[in-house]
Design goal:
Helix content: 55-70%
Subcellular location: Cell membrane
Radius of gyration: 24 Å
Main location: membrane
Number of helices: 11
Shape: elongated
GO biological process, one term: transmembrane transport
Structural class: mainly alpha
Order of helices and strands: HHHHHHHHHHH
Membrane topology: Multi-pass membrane protein
Distance between the termini: 34 Å
GO cellular component, one term: plasma membrane
Largest sheet: none
Strand content: under 5%
Length: 291
Amino acid sequence: MTAQLATVTAPAPRRWRPRPGAVVGAVMLGAVLLLTAVVPLLPGFDPMGQDLRAALLPPFTDPAHPLGTDALGRDLLSRIALASAVTLGMTLLIVAMNAVIGTTIGILAGYFGGRLEALVTLLSNVTLAMPVVLLLIAICAVLRPSAGLTILVLGCTWWVGYARVTRNVAASLRRQDFVVSPLTQGADTLWVLTRHIVPNVRPHTLIIAATDIATIVLITSSLEYLGLGVQPPVPSWGSMIFDGQRHLGADPWLSLLPGIVMLLAVGGAQFLSQQFTAETRGGLLRKGGMR
């Protein structure tokens, strides 16, 4: 009888059901990733080759150039694919750098507290007070603009959100029994941090990283539009949109095509991040928030 009652009253395992927005986001982002991965494998892939005789071909008029060509006769499909790889690669690297830097700083500040926490708070406020675009312009006035410089600047100035969240989580955990008990039994601080603090901080870091991807794509594209990121002849979404402005009246596809691809990437990442955030928060609530 008891076994029957247990069988009846046991909660059914929760099934993962994607939201409609997540499906749309997966399709949008998948189309961009497919473009990035497949086009470089095609025989006619040549993002740098110029042919002035075939300049400004409209889309779907020449089988050799399915999306047309730009003012220098370069294949737009190839350039958009390379621009997608460049921008998305920069975005993932910037997000990873900020996640590592911010999470590490936040864990140390929250766990040890005291002057270290006060110093991190001061450093966070100073970092937030510096506009990223103006900071890059000032640095580019001294150094040559490049993709590496953009990655370095954004990778070292967008970590504040990670640090603040992880600091609060680490501060709430440092006096918990499962953290204090190993210390009283001789465990060192590094072991406690890696075994008890980091696993509880990781879901919060992933949530911020997922929502930051779309934001970083827009920021890097805006900087590339201003000429502060990837330098010619390497294409990027922002630089292609800027170059297409000169022909916006007669040949609008030069700016519209990279803009549409960027829209798909940003929208897809945003839809998927909402699904991921909801699932991760739901898992934290079912587990009681902390281990």
